[in-house]
Structures are given as C-alpha cells and as structure tokens.
UniProtKB/TrEMBL annotation:
KW Zinc-finger (keyword) present: no
PANTHER family given in the database record: LIPOXYGENASE
Gene3D superfamilies: 3.10.450.60
Domain Lipoxygenase: 1-161
Name the UniProt record assigns to this protein: Lipoxygenase domain-containing protein
Oxidoreductase as UniProt keyword: yes
Native organism: Trichoplax adhaerens (Trichoplax reptans)
InterPro entries hit by this protein: LipOase, LipOase_C, LipOase_C_sf
Any one GO molecular-function label of the UniProt entry: oxidoreductase activity, acting on single donors with incorporation of molecular oxygen, incorporation of two atoms of oxygen
GO biological process: lipid oxidation
Amino acid sequence: MRRERYVLDLKFPGFPIQVKQLPREEMFNEVYSNEIFCEKVGKVLTDAAIGWVYGSWSSLPDISSIYRDGTDFHTPSGQFAWDQNIHFTNQRLQGVNPVVLELCTAILSAFKVTNNMIKPFLEGNTLDQAIKTKKMFIYDLTMLQNVPVGGSQENKELINS
C-alpha cells in the first residue's frame, strides 16, 4: 500500500529522488499555509524596515550595525564564530544536507586549489598529507552548477564560478 501511495520519481537528474505526488493528507492544510504566508509577509516587512532604518550593506561588518543595545535585534551567538573551522564544520554536519560532506581521497579536477591557497587551513600539513591522514573533506556542490538563480548578474557569476 505504501509503495502505491509514495511512488518515487527522479524529477531532476543528479538530484535526490522525490515523491511523485504527495498524498493529500500529508500536504499543508489551508490554515497552516496561511500562517506560513503571514509569517513570510511579516519577515519581508521586518527586512524592509531594517533596510530603511539601517541602510544597505556593502560588507560583512556592515551587517553588525543592526545589532544595538535596547533594540529587538540582539547579537546572534554565532556572529563572532562564523569564520572558525569548528563552527563551519558544525554548520555542515548539522545543516540541511550533511550527507554532501565527504572524505576527500583525491583532489578532484574541479577543485582548482594549490597548497599555497589553502595553507592557512592545513594546520602545518600539505594537501597530500591532509588527504592521507583523512583530515581533508569536501563539500561538493557541482550538482548545482547549472541551476537557475535569481538576483544580479554579479551574484549569478559568483554562484556559478
């Protein structure tokens, strides 16, 4: 019975398999859909208000300008740790899709880096040593290379590079 209700379908080659048609009882009901919509509208309005009050951001430190004492925008606990290896690793392992992170056993041709480029991250090892001692992992998102993206041409070039 489950196999008949949950027929799997590969909708996009290279992406995970999905359910062809979600059973009606598993879809969001109208009340919940409306709650999600209202929450999204609230967030869009909040974002607009932040932009209006604090202006646009051109650098990462500019974002910190919205966190001020006495406002509703409290400094996030991860604001000062985002660039640390342990925080990056936690984001990858506890993120939306942790199974994309894999042990690197060889340098892929698409991974165009040299020892000098990543030397600060190798903790005194060479790239080959890090691979041999199983300290090198790769988060390969090449499957997303030709996925259409919105935004400015500059953002599209950054994402597809």
